[in-house]
Design brief:
- The complex is a heterodimer of chains A (152) and B (145).
- With 152 residues, chain A is mainly α.
- Helices cover 72% and strands 0% of the residues of chain A.
- The relative contact order of chain A is 0.08.
- In chain A, helix 6 packs across helix 7.
- Chain B folds into 2 domains: 48 residues, no CATH class; 83 residues, no CATH class.
- Classes of the chains: A mainly alpha (152), B alpha+beta (145).
Chain lengths: 152, 145
C-alpha cells in the first residue's frame, strides 16, 4: 500500500519531500487504527488509506501555506530538505528516449508533464485540435513505454 | 493480481496531468488504491512524468519550447541565456557554466509558413542536429528552442 500512498502524494503535492511526510503520516494513522481495532475488515483497508491520504494532503497544504507565510515574513527556511529521494528511473536512458521522439510528440510530453498545460493550451501552441493533442500524447507515451521497457 | 477492468492509459495520463474533474479523479483513485496492477502502471507513469520534469529542469533536452515553459523555468530559479535572431541575421553566443538553459529565438513573420525545419550547424557549416517539422504557432512571430 505504501507505493500507492507515495503515488497519491506525488500526484497531489508535486513534491518529493512533502510526499515523504504524507507517506509517514498516513502509514502511522493506519497502524494506529489497526492497533486500536478500528479497522478490522481488511477489504476496507484501501478505502481507509485513501481517506487518510485525502485528509493528510489537505493538512499538508494548510501547513505549506502557513510555512510560505512565515518564509515571506522571516526569509529563511530552517526545515529545508538536505537530501533528495532516490531516482526511480534511468535518466540517461529516458533522455535518449525523449530525444528520439518526434518534435511534436516531445513538445506535447514536456508541455503536459513539465508545463502542466491543459490539452486546450497545448492545442493552441501546436495549432492543432485537442483531439489531435490526445492522439499525439498517446503515441508519445506508447513510444516512451516501449523505449524504457515499462508497463504504463 | 490481474485487473479485470484496467484503466485506459489515456485516462491515467489525464489523471496524472490534472486534466480530470474531481469526481473523475475520485473514481480513478478508488480503483487505483484497490488494484495492484493499475497502481503499478500509475507508479511507472508517475516515474516517467517525474523523469521528464527533471530532464526539462536540467536543460538537457534540445527542443522547441513554449513561452509558458520559459516562464516556469524562471519561476523554478533556472538561469536562462536567450539570444534573439532576426530573419537572415546572426548573433555571437556566449555560454557560461552558470547558465542552465540556452535559448535561441528566431523572429520572423510565420503567418504564411506551414512547416519549419531547424538545422543546427557547427563552425564549418556541417549540420549537427536537425529538428524537422517543429511545432510553431503561425501568429506568434517567433520560435524558441
Amino acid at each position: 500500500m505504501a507505493p500507492r500512498v507515495r503515488l497519491y502524494g506525488l500526484r497531489h503535492l508535486r513534491d518529493e519531500h512533502a510526499d515523504d511526510d504524507l507517506a509517514q503520516q498516513v502509514l502511522l494513522t493506519t497502524i494506529e487504527a489497526l492497533r486500536a481495532g478500528r479497522l478490522r475488515e481488511t477489504e476496507k483497508l484501501a478505502s481507509f488509506v485513501l481517506g487518510a491520504c485525502r485528509m493528510t494532503v489537505l493538512d499538508l497544504r494548510r501547513r505549506a501555506q502557513r510555512k510560505q507565510q512565515l518564509l515571506a515574513r522571516f526569509g529563511l527556511d530552517p526545515l529545508a530538505p538536505v537530501q533528495a529521494s532516490e531516482p526511480m528511473i534511468d535518466q540517461d536512458r529516458l533522455a535518449n528516449c525523449v530525444q528520439n521522439l518526434g518534435e511534436r510528440e516531445r513538445a506535447v510530453i514536456v508541455m503536459t508533464f513539465y508545463d502542466e498545460q491543459t490539452g486546450a493550451d497545448v492545442a493552441g501552441f501546436l495549432g492543432v485540435s485537442e483531439v489531435n493533442v490526445r492522439v499525439i500524447r498517446h503515441r508519445a507515451i506508447r513510444q516512451l513505454r516501449d523505449c524504457m521497457g515499462v508497463a504504463v | 493480481m490481474k485487473c479485470m477492468d484496467p484503466i485506459d492509459t489515456t485516462l491515467l495520463v489525464d489523471y496524472w496531468s490534472g486534466a480530470l474533474t474531481e469526481q473523475q479523479e475520485d473514481v480513478i483513485e478508488v480503483h487505483v488504491f484497490g488494484c495492484e496492477e493499475c497502481s503499478g502502471r500509475l507508479v511507472e507513469l508517475g516515474a516517467l512524468a517525474e523523469g521528464i520534469r527533471k530532464l526539462a529542469r536540467s536543460g538537457s533536452l534540445r527542443m522547441v519550447v513554449s513561452d509558458v515553459f520559459l516562464r516556469r523555468a524562471v519561476e523554478a530559479g533556472l538561469r536562462i541565456r536567450e539570444y534573439s535572431l532576426p530573419a537572415g541575421g546572426s548573433v555571437q553566443c556566449t555560454v557560461t557554466e552558470d547558465d542552465d538553459l540556452l535559448i535561441g529565438r528566431l523572429n520572423e513573420d510565420l503567418s504564411a509558413e506551414t512547416r519549419i525545419v531547424v538545422s543546427l550547424c557547427d563552425d564549418a557549416g556541417v549540420e549537427r542536429l536537425r529538428l524537422p517539422d517543429i511545432p510553431f504557432h503561425a501568429t506568434s512571430g517567433s520560435v524558441a528552442f
